[in-house]
Design goal:
CATH class: Mainly Alpha
Number of strands: 2
CATH architecture: Up-down Bundle
Strand content: under 5%
Structural class: mainly alpha
CATH topology: Four Helix Bundle (Hemerythrin (Met), subunit A)
Strand order of the largest sheet: 1-2
Largest sheet: 2 strands, antiparallel
Order of helices and strands: HHHHHHHEEH
Shape: globular
CATH superfamily: CDP-alcohol phosphotransferase transmembrane (TM) domain
Amino acid sequence: MPISRRPIASGFQRTAEGTTRFCVRHGIHPDAISYLSILAALAAAICFWKSGHTPWLLIVAPLFCYLRLWFNMLDGMVAVAANKASRRGEILNDLPDRISDVIIFAGVAHSGLMNPIFGYWAAILAVLTAYVGLFGQALGVRREFGGVMSKPWRMVVLHIGAWLTFFLRGQSFTSFTILDWTCLVVIAGCVQTIFVRLKRITAALQNKG
């Protein structure tokens, strides 16, 4: 069984139950699904990248972000259902997530609709947030998923920012664009999430000791 699993809303899980049975029945390996999540992230990144010239892609891009999340969930469900969960699978479940975060925010950074530095800092903080969450697992306590800016919420914030940019036609507020503010919210949320996770991991280690 996986050492740690992210809490997932039961309603979201139910959307993948039929697909999970299909994958198990046809021998589709969970690793292949993990790689599909990177392709979904790449599609989202391309949509963001081209959205400066083709604004309607801002509507489509978040859908690929959610598809990425769905594949991230599906690979774990298939691994458990097919009894293929392993320690190696822990790596292939996590590494594509980090690659996906970087790809998506790099696409946002180069959309031409924001200051690229904010997009890259959002990518850096997203990776660091997940890295800190792994500390607990690495040190013998549980992995931490707490904080306001976990992976699903980063995608939700990006979704809101993308659609607002489209419907408000790229308006700026106090010299920052909507996507600037979106990435600043992600950055601030990641800082809070890192603090919360470090605090909880430290407390768990002290209790264990």
